[in-house]
Amino acid sequence: MLTILFDLDDTLYDTASPFFRVLANYRLENSHSEEATFALFRKHCDAAFDLFSNGDLTLAESHIMRTQHTFADLGLPLTAEEAMHFQETYQKRQAEITLSPGIEQLLNELKSRHIPIAVFTNGPEKHQMKKFNALGLERWVPPARIFISETIGFPKPHAEAFTHVQKALKANPDELLFIGDTYETDIIGGQTAGWTSLWFNHRRKPEDEKVVLEPIFYSVAEMHQAIHDNISKRKEM
Protein backbone atom coordinates (compact mmCIF):
# COMPACT_ATOMS: atom_id res chain seq x y z
CA MET A 1 0.00 0.00 0.00
CA LEU A 2 1.20 3.50 -0.86
CA THR A 3 2.22 5.73 2.07
CA ILE A 4 2.94 9.42 1.52
CA LEU A 5 5.54 11.00 3.79
CA PHE A 6 6.09 14.72 4.23
CA ASP A 7 9.03 16.60 5.64
CA LEU A 8 7.81 19.10 8.26
CA ASP A 9 9.82 22.34 8.24
CA ASP A 10 9.36 24.46 5.12
CA THR A 11 7.28 21.72 3.49
CA LEU A 12 4.02 21.73 5.45
CA TYR A 13 4.45 25.26 6.81
CA ASP A 14 6.56 28.32 6.03
CA THR A 15 9.51 28.51 8.43
CA ALA A 16 10.31 32.05 7.28
CA SER A 17 7.16 33.58 8.78
CA PRO A 18 8.06 33.26 12.50
CA PHE A 19 11.69 34.15 11.73
CA PHE A 20 10.85 37.48 10.11
CA ARG A 21 8.31 38.35 12.78
CA VAL A 22 11.14 38.24 15.32
CA LEU A 23 13.78 39.78 13.04
CA ALA A 24 11.60 42.87 12.61
CA ASN A 25 12.59 43.87 16.16
CA TYR A 26 16.25 44.33 15.17
CA ARG A 27 18.03 47.12 13.28
CA LEU A 28 20.34 45.53 10.74
CA GLU A 29 23.26 47.34 9.10
CA ASN A 30 23.70 45.09 6.07
CA SER A 31 21.09 45.29 3.35
CA HIS A 32 19.86 41.88 2.22
CA SER A 33 16.70 40.76 0.51
CA GLU A 34 14.35 38.67 2.62
CA GLU A 35 15.22 35.66 0.48
CA ALA A 36 18.96 36.15 1.01
CA THR A 37 18.51 36.81 4.73
CA PHE A 38 16.53 33.65 5.28
CA ALA A 39 18.96 31.64 3.16
CA LEU A 40 21.74 32.75 5.53
CA PHE A 41 19.72 31.62 8.53
CA ARG A 42 18.92 28.23 6.98
CA LYS A 43 22.59 27.72 6.08
CA HIS A 44 23.66 28.32 9.67
CA CYS A 45 20.74 26.22 10.99
CA ASP A 46 21.91 23.26 8.91
CA ALA A 47 25.53 23.63 10.04
CA ALA A 48 24.55 23.92 13.71
CA PHE A 49 22.15 20.98 13.47
CA ASP A 50 24.90 18.78 12.04
CA LEU A 51 27.13 19.60 15.02
CA PHE A 52 24.25 18.93 17.41
CA SER A 53 23.46 15.60 15.70
CA ASN A 54 27.11 14.55 15.97
CA GLY A 55 27.17 15.37 19.68
CA ASP A 56 29.59 18.27 19.26
CA LEU A 57 27.13 20.88 20.58
CA THR A 58 24.22 20.86 22.99
CA LEU A 59 20.88 21.96 21.57
CA ALA A 60 21.17 25.34 23.30
CA GLU A 61 24.70 25.81 21.97
CA SER A 62 23.54 25.02 18.44
CA HIS A 63 20.79 27.64 18.73
CA ILE A 64 23.28 30.25 19.96
CA MET A 65 25.75 29.39 17.21
CA ARG A 66 23.28 29.61 14.33
CA THR A 67 21.83 32.89 15.62
CA GLN A 68 25.20 34.54 16.25
CA HIS A 69 26.55 33.51 12.85
CA THR A 70 23.42 34.73 11.07
CA PHE A 71 23.43 38.11 12.81
CA ALA A 72 27.17 38.51 12.26
CA ASP A 73 26.57 38.07 8.53
CA LEU A 74 23.81 40.69 8.77
CA GLY A 75 26.13 43.18 10.47
CA LEU A 76 24.79 42.94 14.02
CA PRO A 77 26.96 40.78 16.31
CA LEU A 78 25.07 39.32 19.28
CA THR A 79 26.27 38.08 22.64
CA ALA A 80 25.33 34.54 23.65
CA GLU A 81 22.66 35.97 25.95
CA GLU A 82 21.20 38.08 23.15
CA ALA A 83 21.23 35.09 20.81
CA MET A 84 19.31 33.01 23.34
CA HIS A 85 16.76 35.80 23.71
CA PHE A 86 16.24 35.72 19.94
CA GLN A 87 15.83 31.93 20.06
CA GLU A 88 13.30 32.08 22.91
CA THR A 89 11.23 34.68 21.06
CA TYR A 90 11.50 32.69 17.84
CA GLN A 91 10.21 29.57 19.58
CA LYS A 92 7.23 31.51 20.92
CA ARG A 93 6.40 32.60 17.38
CA GLN A 94 6.74 29.00 16.17
CA ALA A 95 3.87 28.08 18.50
CA GLU A 96 1.69 30.30 16.28
CA ILE A 97 2.53 28.63 12.96
CA THR A 98 -0.16 27.47 10.55
CA LEU A 99 -0.17 25.10 7.60
CA SER A 100 0.78 26.68 4.29
CA PRO A 101 -2.24 27.60 2.14
CA GLY A 102 -3.49 24.55 0.27
CA ILE A 103 -1.84 21.96 2.54
CA GLU A 104 -4.95 21.28 4.62
CA GLN A 105 -6.97 20.65 1.45
CA LEU A 106 -4.29 18.27 0.18
CA LEU A 107 -4.13 16.31 3.44
CA ASN A 108 -7.92 16.09 3.61
CA GLU A 109 -8.04 14.72 0.08
CA LEU A 110 -5.41 12.08 0.82
CA LYS A 111 -7.24 11.08 3.99
CA SER A 112 -10.54 10.79 2.12
CA ARG A 113 -8.80 8.44 -0.33
CA HIS A 114 -7.57 6.33 2.61
CA ILE A 115 -3.92 6.96 1.75
CA PRO A 116 -1.73 6.76 4.89
CA ILE A 117 0.16 9.96 5.67
CA ALA A 118 3.40 10.20 7.67
CA VAL A 119 5.76 12.96 8.80
CA PHE A 120 9.54 12.42 8.59
CA THR A 121 11.57 15.30 10.03
CA ASN A 122 14.99 16.18 11.41
CA GLY A 123 15.26 17.80 14.82
CA PRO A 124 14.83 17.35 18.57
CA GLU A 125 11.70 15.38 19.44
CA LYS A 126 10.24 17.89 21.90
CA HIS A 127 10.80 20.83 19.56
CA GLN A 128 9.39 19.09 16.49
CA MET A 129 6.36 17.77 18.36
CA LYS A 130 5.49 21.30 19.49
CA LYS A 131 5.34 22.32 15.84
CA PHE A 132 3.44 19.15 14.90
CA ASN A 133 0.81 19.94 17.54
CA ALA A 134 0.66 23.65 16.67
CA LEU A 135 -0.19 22.67 13.08
CA GLY A 136 -2.88 20.22 14.18
CA LEU A 137 -1.29 17.41 12.20
CA GLU A 138 -2.78 14.78 14.50
CA ARG A 139 -5.90 15.13 12.33
CA TRP A 140 -4.08 13.21 9.59
CA VAL A 141 -1.01 11.59 11.13
CA PRO A 142 -1.25 9.10 14.03
CA PRO A 143 1.64 8.79 16.52
CA ALA A 144 2.92 5.60 14.86
CA ARG A 145 3.60 7.55 11.66
CA ILE A 146 5.56 10.43 13.20
CA PHE A 147 9.30 10.00 12.59
CA ILE A 148 11.75 12.43 14.22
CA SER A 149 15.51 12.11 13.83
CA GLU A 150 16.32 12.43 17.54
CA THR A 151 13.98 9.52 18.31
CA ILE A 152 15.28 7.45 15.40
CA GLY A 153 18.90 8.04 16.37
CA PHE A 154 19.98 9.22 12.91
CA PRO A 155 19.07 12.32 10.89
CA LYS A 156 18.23 12.46 7.21
CA PRO A 157 20.01 11.77 4.85
CA HIS A 158 21.63 8.88 6.77
CA ALA A 159 20.56 5.53 5.35
CA GLU A 160 19.80 4.27 8.85
CA ALA A 161 17.05 6.89 9.23
CA PHE A 162 15.32 5.84 6.02
CA THR A 163 15.71 2.14 6.84
CA HIS A 164 14.14 2.72 10.27
CA VAL A 165 11.12 4.49 8.79
CA GLN A 166 10.64 1.90 6.07
CA LYS A 167 10.72 -0.96 8.58
CA ALA A 168 8.35 0.84 10.95
CA LEU A 169 5.87 1.28 8.10
CA LYS A 170 6.34 -2.35 7.01
CA ALA A 171 6.71 -1.07 3.46
CA ASN A 172 8.79 -1.74 0.39
CA PRO A 173 10.72 1.19 -1.12
CA ASP A 174 8.38 1.38 -4.11
CA GLU A 175 5.42 1.87 -1.75
CA LEU A 176 6.81 5.12 -0.31
CA LEU A 177 6.37 8.61 -1.74
CA PHE A 178 8.36 11.32 0.07
CA ILE A 179 7.96 15.10 -0.32
CA GLY A 180 10.58 17.48 1.06
CA ASP A 181 12.12 20.90 0.47
CA THR A 182 15.80 20.13 1.04
CA TYR A 183 17.74 18.41 -1.72
CA GLU A 184 20.71 17.35 0.42
CA THR A 185 18.68 15.60 3.12
CA ASP A 186 15.26 14.76 1.70
CA ILE A 187 15.88 14.06 -1.97
CA ILE A 188 19.34 12.47 -1.85
CA GLY A 189 18.36 10.40 1.18
CA GLY A 190 15.05 9.31 -0.32
CA GLN A 191 16.44 8.47 -3.74
CA THR A 192 19.31 6.49 -2.23
CA ALA A 193 16.77 4.49 -0.20
CA GLY A 194 14.83 3.71 -3.37
CA TRP A 195 11.84 5.87 -2.43
CA THR A 196 10.04 8.08 -4.92
CA SER A 197 11.20 11.51 -3.74
CA LEU A 198 9.63 14.78 -4.87
CA TRP A 199 11.53 18.05 -4.42
CA PHE A 200 9.38 20.97 -3.25
CA ASN A 201 11.87 23.67 -4.26
CA HIS A 202 9.74 26.68 -3.36
CA ARG A 203 12.83 28.59 -2.18
CA ARG A 204 14.18 28.27 -5.74
CA LYS A 205 17.50 26.81 -4.63
CA PRO A 206 20.04 26.19 -7.44
CA GLU A 207 19.24 23.03 -9.36
CA ASP A 208 22.37 22.79 -11.54
CA GLU A 209 24.21 19.46 -11.38
CA LYS A 210 21.67 17.97 -8.99
CA VAL A 211 20.42 14.48 -9.76
CA VAL A 212 16.63 14.50 -9.43
CA LEU A 213 14.66 11.50 -10.68
CA GLU A 214 11.21 13.11 -10.47
CA PRO A 215 9.86 16.49 -11.68
CA ILE A 216 10.67 19.44 -9.41
CA PHE A 217 7.82 21.71 -8.30
CA TYR A 218 7.64 25.15 -6.72
CA SER A 219 4.20 25.68 -5.17
CA VAL A 220 1.65 23.80 -3.08
CA ALA A 221 -0.65 23.66 -6.11
CA GLU A 222 2.14 21.98 -8.09
CA MET A 223 2.79 19.66 -5.13
CA HIS A 224 -0.85 18.62 -5.23
CA GLN A 225 -0.60 17.91 -8.96
CA ALA A 226 2.71 16.03 -8.63
CA ILE A 227 1.23 13.74 -5.96
CA HIS A 228 -1.91 13.20 -8.04
CA ASP A 229 0.19 12.36 -11.11
CA ASN A 230 2.31 9.90 -9.13
CA ILE A 231 -0.76 8.14 -7.73
CA SER A 232 -2.27 7.91 -11.22
CA LYS A 233 0.98 6.51 -12.62
CA ARG A 234 1.01 3.82 -9.95
CA LYS A 235 -2.51 2.74 -10.87
CA GLU A 236 -1.42 2.28 -14.48
CA MET A 237 1.50 0.01 -13.55
Structural notes for this entry:
The chain is of the alpha/beta class and 237 residues long. It folds into two domains: 151 residues, HAD superfamily/HAD-like (Rossmann fold, 3-Layer(aba) Sandwich); 79 residues, DNA polymerase, domain 1 (Orthogonal Bundle). It has ten helices and five strands. The protein has a five-stranded parallel β-sheet, sandwiched between helices. The protein is globular. The model has no long low-confidence stretch (mean pLDDT 94).
The first-to-last residue Cα distance is 14 Å
Number of domains: 2
Q: Give the count of helical stretches.
A: 10
The beta-strand count equals 5
Low-confidence stretches: none
Which architecture of the largest domain would the CATH scheme give at its second level? Answer: 3-Layer(aba) Sandwich
- Structural class designation: alpha/beta
Helix content: 40-55%
Main sheet overview = 5 strands, parallel
Question: What is the CATH class of the largest domain?
Answer: Alpha Beta
**Mean pLDDT across residues:** 94
Would you tell me which CATH topology of the largest domain applies? Rossmann fold
Order of helices and strands: EHHHHHEHEHHEHEH
Rounded to the nearest angstrom, the radius of gyration is 18 Å
Protein name: Putative hydrolase of the HAD superfamily
Keywords: Hydrolase, Magnesium, Metal-binding
GO molecular function: metal ion binding; phosphatase activity
Pfam families: Hydrolase (PF00702)
